[in-house]
Amino acid sequence: MPVRGLYAITDAGASGPEALVARVTPVLAAGARVLQYRDKSSNALRRLREAQALAAACRDYGALFIVNDDIDLAAACGAGGVHLGRDDVSIAEARRRLGNEAMIGVSCYASLERAGQMQEAGADYLAFGAVYPSVTKPHTVRAELALLRQARARFALPLVAIGGITAANARDVVATGVDAVAVIQGVFGASDPALAARHIAALFAG
């Protein structure tokens, strides 16, 4: 399943499988093609139940389901893949645990050098950010539009832009040639999440 279009990432606005699915479903219906479950809490049973429920919702809408950081949770809930940061397990370990069909994405922050290393290591997509100031990670490094254009010229893998992206500024990001834009607050923090999702998804139409 390709990484393209709106890549939605769950926020902390709902807890529990039913509430989280209710929050996410309008965004999937509005055109999100990838959904990442991001939850840093230590409640393993709740996280498993939420991930299983979200995986089922993604299957219903034909979207790719990704788990942030946790390869064991990704395996347990039947996720389509995992997203790894600098301090997470290696791509090789994730591949060994999840299999060759799993989608393994990596955070490259603002480093083209890291992106090249991750491509060589077998990543399936490369994520760069923060493109704009981020509410979720206010002190993170910036990966501005010029860097996205450089990455597009250099790498054949799908590219994901993240950080501060909203329906109001996503057009400029998409114009750099990235394959997907990853959004948390820009969708789930909007007054109408489905409308925001539909607007961003439409930028990739055709």
Describe this structure in words.
This protein has an eight-stranded parallel β-barrel with strand order 1-2-3-4-5-6-7-8, surrounded by six helices. With 206 residues, the chain is an alpha/beta fold. The protein has nine helices and eight strands.
* Portion of residues within helices: 40-55%
Number of strands: 8
User: Segments where pLDDT lies below 50 for 5+ residues?
Assistant: none
Task: Tell me the number of helical segments per DSSP (H or I, 4 or more residues long).
Answer: 9
Q: What structural class should be given to the helix and strand makeup?
A: alpha/beta
Overall pLDDT, averaged?
Answer: 96
What's the shape?
globular
The helix/strand order is EHEHEHEHEHEHEHEHH
Percent strand equals 15-25%
**Rg over C-alpha atoms, rounded to the nearest angstrom:** 16 Å
Instruction: Give the termini distance in whole angstroms.
Output: 17 Å
Read across the widest sheet, the strand sequence of neighbours is 1-2-3-4-5-6-7-8
Biggest beta-sheet profile: 8 strands, parallel, barrel
Keywords:
41% helix; 9 helices
Short description:
The protein is an alpha/beta fold. It has nine helices and eight strands.
How are the secondary structure elements laid out?
Layout: E1 5-9, H1 17-29, E2 34-37, H2 44-61, E3 64-68, H3 71-77, E4 81-84, H4 91-98, E5 103-109, H5 112-121, E6 125-129, H6 145-154, E7 159-162, H7 170-174, E8 180-183, H8 185-188, H9 193-202
Parallel strand pairs: 1-2, 1-8, 2-3, 3-4, 4-5, 5-6, 6-7, 7-8
Helix pairs in contact: 1-2, 1-9, 2-3
